[in-house]
Specification:
Layout lengths: L1 H25 L13 E3 L1 E17 L2 E5 L4 E6 L6 E2 L4 E5 L2 H61 L5 H59 L1 E3 L4 E6 L6 E2 L4 E6 L4 E8 L11 E6 L2 E15 L2 E8 L12 E18 L8 E9 L2 E12 L3 E6 L6 E3 L12
Antiparallel strand pairs: 1-19, 2-11, 2-15, 3-10, 4-6, 4-9, 5-8, 6-7, 8-10, 11-14, 12-13, 12-15, 13-14, 15-18, 16-17, 16-19, 17-18
Length: 400
């Protein structure tokens, strides 16, 4: 009988302990100490966003490719990959012999053309003198015929000359006038020819002067210099090797500013559009960025894209560093929010505990968008208020 009584007491004791544990788990405020374990979220104002995960690699933003200005041979390489260089410092010397020869040839041709132009000036002056002289001779001849005709007309009045002689003189005057007109037209054409020849020579000289400037500019570029302060990433060539025109010689980066080369699962590609916002998580810092160019093709079920950072010179960024990213699906900025909790439901009314001093007060709250980190508060709470997130009255928990 006593054994049965003892067994009954043991069962009741275990049941009581089990019930107490359940009550403590369901309602933390029922714990033996009466205080319970509490978690508090503070209402503030800011960004609420929903995101999908992506990954990325940090790349220099201002990487510069230096090309060979002409087809040439690498004479000397002064710096190696990884070397730091200052703006204007020579990195590579290219062979300049051929370019110097071309410059010398152009200068010789310019001298010849200049001499031709000078001779053309002198020829033009002599031709104008000859043309003017011929015109004066024609004019004098016409004046002489006119005087002769006047004398003959006087003789005709006294019968000293026949009318046939006067007709012949008049005909000679007409022919002399036509000769003068023709000479003037020919002179005009000849002067235009001389002008065209001079303009042609001047044009040739101007073209060769531009060629000379271009060649001299190429000559200056054969000492390949750093266009900015930075670090040499790679040199594509060796001393003695021939390089083609516009072939990449040097890859240079200043490592002062960065961008992100991102990738995301193909299933989430709908959220990757140029201009969409992105968060980059690196070194305990969250950096803001926007999506730039998107690669249209998909490789290994991944879509690739560039991200341009708002703070592209953050000390947390290191070249070739792997980073985590969040591509934002939707967001609301400058809204009331509270740190997201698994019990807070999207677009719903719920009763929660609001801490007022040492007391907990029930409050009906209207929640909106549920984000990755925060939950939007539409009504029922004010900025700065504290909400207990470890226990809920759930009285009259609202419908969606």
């Amino acid at each position: 009988m006593s054994n049965k009584k003892g067994l009954l007491i043991a069962v009741l004791s275990l049941s009581a302990v089990f019930l107490l544990v359940i009550l403590i788990w369901i309602v933390p405020s029922f714990s033996p100490s009466g205080s319970g374990k509490s978690s508090v979220a503070i209402v503030d104002r800011g960004l609420v966003y929903l995101s999908v995960d992506a990954s990325g690699v940090v790349e220099p933003e201002n990487e510069v490719l230096i090309l060979s200005p002409v087809a040439s041979v690498i004479k000397t390489i002064y710096k190696e990959p990884g070397s730091q260089v200052q703006k204007g410092e020579v990195i590579i010397d290219l062979d300049d012999e051929q370019t110097k020869n071309e410059i010398s040839q152009i200068k010789d041709q310019l001298e010849v053309k200049s001499n031709s132009l000078e001779r053309s000036h002198l020829d033009a002056q002599m031709t104008r003198i000859d043309l003017d002289y011929n015109v004066e001779v024609k004019k004098l001849k016409i004046a002489s015929i006119k005087a002769q005709l006047a004398d003959e007309e006087q003789l005709l009045t006294v019968g000293g000359i026949s009318s046939a002689k006067i007709d012949e003189t008049k005909q000679n005057l007409v022919l002399a006038q036509k000769d003068l007109d023709m000479l003037l037209k020919k002179n005009m054409i000849r002067l235009k020819q001389l002008k065209a020849e001079e303009e042609g020579l001047n044009l040739q000289i101007e073209i060769q002067k531009k060629q000379l400037i271009d060649k001299e500019e190429v000559l200056s570029k054969l000492k390949v210099k750093a266009p900015l302060d930075g670090i040499i990433m790679s040199i594509l060539g060796k001393a003695g090797e021939r390089v083609g025109n516009d072939k990449t010689l040097i890859s240079l980066s200043d490592l002062a500013t960065f961008k992100i080369k991102g990738s995301i699962d193909e299933k989430n590609s709908e959220f990757v559009k140029t201009g969409n916002p992105v968060f980059i998580l690196v070194g305990g810092e969250r950096l803001k960025g926007v999506i730039g160019n998107v690669t249209p093709s998909v490789t290994d079920n991944k879509l690739h894209f560039n991200v341009h950072l708002e703070k592209n010179d953050s000390p947390s960024l290191i070249s070739n560093q792997n980073v985590k990213m969040k591509v934002l699906k939707s967001l609301k900025d400058n809204v009331l929010r509270v740190y997201s909790n698994k019990h807070f439901r999207e677009n719903s009314e719920q009763t929660v505990y609001v801490l007022e001093g040492s007391s907990k007060v029930e409050r009906t709250v209207r929640f909106g968008m549920k984000g990755t980190e925060y939950q939007e508060v539409i009504s029922g709470l004010k900025e700065g208020e504290k909400v207990e997130t470890s226990s809920f009255p759930f009285f009259g928990s609202g419908s969606k």
